[in-house]
Amino acid sequence: MSLSISLTVNGDRCDVDLDDPRVTLLDLLRERMALPGTKKGCDRGQCGACTVLVNGRRINSCLTLAVTLNGAEVTTIEGLAAGEDLHPVQTAFIEHDGFQCGYCTPGQIMSAVGLIAEGQAGDDAERIREGMSGNLCRCSAYHGITEAVQDAARRMASADERKSA
Amino acid sequence: MTVAKPLPHDAARLHVTGGARYVDDLPTPPGTLHLAFGLSAKARAKVTLGLEAVRASAGVALVLGPGDLDPMPDCSPSAHDEPLLAMGEAFYAGHPLFLVAAESHLLARKAAAKAEIGYEELDAILTIEDAIAADSRFEDGPRVYEKGDVMAAISRAPHLVEGRVLVGGQEHFYLEGQSALAIPTEDGGMVVHSSSQHPTEIQHKVADALGRAMHDVKVEVRRMGGGFGGKESQGNHLAIACAVVAARTGRPVKMRYDRDDDFVVTGKRHDFRIDYRAGFDGEGRCLGVDFVQYCRCGWSMDLSLPVADRAMLHADNAYLLPAARITSHRLKTNTQSATAFRGFGGPQGMVGIERVMDHAAHVLGLDPLEVRRANYYREAPVAASEASGGSISGKMKGQPLPTADLAGRGSVKVETGSGKATRYGGAHSRVPATAENATPYGMEVTDFILHEMTETLARDCEFEARKAAVAEWNAANPVLKRGIALTPVKFGISFTLTHLNQAGALVHVYQDGSVSMNHGGTEMGQGLFQKVAQVAASRFGLPMERVRITATDTAKVPNTSATAASSGSDLNGMAVKAACDAIRDRIAEVVAAELQAEPAAIVFEDGQVRAGEASMSWEEAIAKTYMARVSLSATGFYATPGIEWDRIAGRGRPFYYFAYGAACSEVVIDTLTGENRILRTDILHDCGASLNPAIDIGQIEGGFVQGAGWLTTEELVWDGAGRLRTHAPSTYKIPACSDRPGVFNVALWDGANREETIYRSKAVGEPPLMLGISVWSALAQACAACGPNWPDLQTPATAEAVLAAVGRARG
What we know:
The structure holds two protein chains of two kinds. Chain A is α+β, with helices and mostly antiparallel strands. Chain A has helices spanning 25-32, 88-95, 105-118, 125-131, 142-164; strands spanning 3-9, 12-18, 51-54, 57-60, 73-75. Chain A is 36% helix and 15% strand. The N and C termini of chain A lie far apart (54 Å). In chain B, 28% of the residues lie in helices and 23% in strands. In chain B, helix 10 (346-364) packs parallel to helix 19 (773-784) and helix 15 runs parallel beside helix 16 (568-595). Chain B has 20 helices and 29 strands. Chain B has an eight-stranded mixed β-sheet with strand order 3-5-1-12-9-10-11-20, sandwiched between helices. A five-stranded mixed β-sheet of chain B has the order 7-15-14-13-8, with helices on both faces. At the A-B interface, helix 2, helix 3, helix 4 and helix 5 of A face helix 1 and helix 18 of B.
């Protein structure tokens, strides 16, 4: 059985033939598209290491069947920076030491980008912690992660203000 | 100077852009095979394998059962008791029985599921109680360390405190699962990429499995996605399996465990039962304590002996015990082989004595912190370092070295032959009770700083006022109860197997002045690479970007110890310093004449090579040294001085120094459900003169949270058939972002290491984990606030355990 889908990954249009309808987005990215930045932690949607954006929303790519994504726009950690310019969330993770081993970091950052876009957490550390609690960090760099998300949200909000002013 | 700066982790930009590669991210060469194990579903059984369907499954290239391997490769870091595949009898549920190599990971797993496995079940020994009843153990009897006359001290004491604490195990849950990739090279060589804390052991075990010399195998480790001890020995099986199949097929071979398999196959933190009996006077001073530690080791020895030793060595924690006896039983069970986990037994030992302090305070009606302080070791004298290690016997010298696994912590086995210890004595010698400030194993504590640290922390976190506020709250609120506790940590730094305290480094300076640095330590997120690179940059007076950090590689630096025991920066930092200094000395010799100075007067700073007013750029000095035909490459080596330890007698100076810390946690419990949370934690921790305060604070925060998780939500559950039922994050709860304390303050103690460590810093990997004990102690306080009785809170203090303790407190 062969299924063809067409989707956009990090701005590039891709036509993909799937030999099995059960291929997950995570495996598609890692094994077929040479994008190993998205990590496989638990492969069952509970650790958040595989978080990517689909049409701007954060999802667990290990629980998403690639076949459902015809026409979708996928952003992974590799597509977040604009060339050499890091996304504000990426910069904030470096500045606030939001990681140790780094394995959960791509998922944390994509989740943070999604959370900020949801506009729910604002500047509230408690709500950021709740909103980020689907992304496990065994090194427990949670202090830095929370600060990074807070800081990035602030920076992005003030950049938006400047734009609209 | 680049040391003592809060620089980010070495690969920070790679981590945030997804460019940091782990083993599973490496592009595999064409034709790579993928492996899966078939696992035993029974805890103990004679096994017959029907593998025809597996062999016939799509995409399968090779299937290996126990009969297909002769000799059977061994995966053990210690006793050669872990054949790669079970040989006719499975010893735990999860035991690898056969091996499938297929064209993809998925095809290998699908094929493995098709095996027809016949089990003839045998009686399994699952629990500590089962093992005691069957006298199923490692070593021929318990180990005993003893100081003074414990029985007399306890019987004379006015107050007796007696009880039992169950200390749970812990799954590492490194976010990156175990993985390995083996690539055959010409002439029988093998290159192995492994997610391992111990490349040298992987090299040694793979060489053994292939029947080759160690120089035929090269192991490379750039980074791990977390290790925590779980990658000290548990990666052996994957690397060996890959190498064996690669050698047979001539193809590259990769293996990674799925998360469930990772939980079910690999070892975890040892769970303990600790029985205690202690005598106290009315002021809360401990007169004597008798601990019996029962340690569940699982089916094979692995690193259990040194883990259990370290639990004994931390049974005192921060307390000067006039008389103490620690008896340690290392029990063999049909469960996963428990292994290294951050703290390596130390945390379990420490939970025992902290429980005794809390229990005594309850019995005596005293404040737990006051009881703790009354029992602290004495303050360090000023000229401390000279006093230490003076009373060590030289009896370990001249003993024959073990014949294998020299670099493994498990190689402790060779010293166990004389273990004639019995229940109350044996081949141990009692430490005289007269030792001034000595541990139960006879080491003088000469660097004790916890009096001052406790004072400072208690003041800064307003402990007394908050304790009063908690009492007031508890008097007014029947449903939600609060608790607050301040607990100390004293953790011994060094491998207790003395010969492992060595490290090597290789430093090259290229013609353009750029520096390439390599050492035996591995990077797993602890920031070792950055700290050591800071040392190199500092020695040469260069900015960090001039130093390139390279992957740990057994072909560059040989005979390394595991990156473990918190020793990474201490050992590798010194080795790199030695290599850099050798190169500096050579450069100085070359340029001395031109700078009109003695070589010894030449300094390296700010990219310049200087002598007084005269200077030249680093690049110029390098060019001159090269033109003078002087080597710009050097190895460095370091061996920790002053340590000597006899683990059988329980005597000596196993540790170069101690690292200290103290934490105060405040918690609230819901007495209707047992639900609980950490409201606030304040930590004061000792890293000596920190090499990198940002990385050290990260280690402290992370260690604390991991320790608090261990003692609260992280519950491992085996069913009556010995199957681990908590084998994924759905059932095994590690702390999430929302679980960290609402208020969380971490400060570094401002002081230098009294010993001559690298820039007078202290090790920081493991000690902060035990700061998590403050949470458990605070929870016990909250439970005790519910009624007059001793709540006897066990670990992990899950909501269920808290609810039970509330019930006991109420009576």
